[in-house]
Amino acid sequence: MSANAQVQAVEGHHDDDHGHHHKETFVTKYIFSIDHKMISKQYMITGIFMGVIGILMSLLFRLQLAWPDHKFTIFEVLLGKWGADGVMDPSVYLALVTIHGTIMVFFVLTAGLSGTFSNLLIPLQIGARDMASGFLNMVSFWLFFISSVIMLGSLFVEAGPASAGWTIYPPLSALPQAIPGSGTGMTLWLISMAIFIAASLLGSLNFIVTVLNLRTKGMSMTRLPLTVWSFFLTAIIGVVSFPVLFSAVLMLVMDRSFGTSFFLSDIYIAGEVLHHQGGSPVLFEHLFWFLGHPEVYIVILPAMGIVSEIMATNSRKPIFGYRAMVASLLTIAFLSTIVWGHHMFISGMNPFLGSVFTFTTLLIAIPSAVKSFNWITTLWRGKLQMNVALLWCIAFVSTFITGGLTGIIMGDSALDINIHDTYFIVAHFHLVMGISAAYGFLAGVYHWFPIMFEGRMMNKKLGYIHFWVTSIGAYGIFFPMHFVGLAGLPRRYYTNTNFPYFDDLADINVVMTIFAILTISVQVVFLYNFIHSMFYGKMGPKNPWNATTLEWTAERKHIHGNWDGPIPHVYRWPYDYSKLNKDETDFVIAGQDFIPQNVPLQDNEDELDH
């Protein structure tokens, strides 16, 4: 059967099925839902909640870094015995850094971003009733939710949560008796991540099958919006790389509990020789970073797709270089799997192998530069609609470029050795991955909020306040980190007062912490805007941004199946902006500057233009 025949058969099957769903109860609609729109909201709200926890942790250790000799009542209130008399225990500082990094990288930026927008947009933008398997979609969310509960539960174990850093390098993570945070808290971390990986794999497989098999009639791969391309490739990277982390977690559990020596060799604790030999902690580093570096792109690719879509819509211009954008996404997806070694330049790596990883790392800058160039060119001479979502997109390009430029320094093995494990690294990955991905997430929330909540709009004035304070504050936190990193300030130390060399940098730490407090505080404005608008937001038009893609043609009131009638067919690419229609049809209003994808081609239009 041909691809088109398959699509039509699937579409017909979905059309026939539509309308035969059983009446939904509260439980089946809001809790164990198989509707992709509800599951996307479940991912988003869980991700935002986890984000609040992760951000509050960062506030605690920023207070400790800025004023290490000061006593804070909040430490005693929130940390209990770990913050007795208002003084933070050194061991819990590393635990906070560990759980903060884990939550933000995996539970917020991976599941929160991809889980929310892949679920929401893939079926709507390709013209499908739902995901390929609604049941597996539901299972993937609940596995993610369970893993989130276990990760948060690890904060309350007697000996403290995992304290080996978010990269959980052995031997700290492999020997339960190493430090207090190597005990039950570490075990719960490993269980949580194993379940999280299962959730991610189920979701990713669902996304891939849906994109390949459930596209509506006329929706060829070259007519996919860049959002769908980015979600599709993100899912492929996840399927390739997450099982490698799962194998590392499994071997780590065996080292901890069953006496194996995958990652341990010749270990002494308090003069006692442990029965481990033949293993290598460097093996764990290879396994972890084979996931860890593609993970960076699992986080950033969805944000890239979201930014591309919103920029074209609000510039009222076709995206610049659609094919180049798709090619750069494909190139990034491929190269992301062969650059992991740049995290390990000081692990005793063979210098020749280091030069190979340097080459591939610098090579990946090319498709990234292509994307940045194309975003700027899309904005150039556009009729910019400066709404909140577009501002987040512009800020994304700014942080992606500034953070990406420092990546060139870190990608060179000779330079990286000098700045490894300093605050320069923290500055780089927070800007290029953390902040940029968060900006993409926020842009998506402001832009597709009416889709998620049946036509309600977020408050624009509160959105502007949130944007300006956050974007200025984020640079205030992370830009100075480059300079203290170049001065040699090491990361993960809970205080630097024992090193007189760093006394001159103490004031910079205070400045960064003040910006952090300001930036974290303004997120309350976003949370209020988000929750209030969900119930009381002003109703907007059905297509408030005058966008061309199919999600704006779906029923405003959420029904399981998206379209009450037949699924719309697609006749054109998704970026027909700045087109004034001389010939009126039943579908197009003469004089408007865009043509939706479901409007048939005119006789005088050349489909091959695109």
Walkthrough of the structure:
With 610 residues, this protein is mainly α. The protein has a domain at 34-267: Up-down Bundle (Cytochrome C Oxidase, Chain A), CATH 1.20.210.10. The chain contains 17 helices and two strands. It has helices at 3-17, 26-31, 36-66, 73-79, 90-126, 134-153, 184-213, 226-257, 281-315, 322-335, 351-363, 365-379, 388-411, 413-419, 423-452, 460-486, 506-536, and strands spanning 268-269, 272-273. The protein has a two-stranded antiparallel ribbon. Strand 1 and strand 2 form a beta hairpin. The protein is globular, with a radius of gyration of 25 Å. The two termini are 27 Å apart. The model is unreliable at 1-20, 582-588 and 606-610 (pLDDT under 50).
Mean pLDDT: 90
CATH architecture of the domain at 34-267: Up-down Bundle
Strand content: under 5%
Strand order of the main beta sheet, please? Answer: 1-2
- Taken in chain order, the helices and strands follow as HHHHHHHHEEHHHHHHHHH
Query: pLDDT under 50 segments (min length 5)?
Result: 1-20, 582-588, 606-610
| Helix count, DSSP H or I runs of 4 or more residues | 17
Radius of gyration, CA atoms, in whole angstroms: 25 Å
Kindly report the CATH topology of the domain at 34-267.
Cytochrome C Oxidase, Chain A
Biggest beta sheet summary: 2 strands, antiparallel
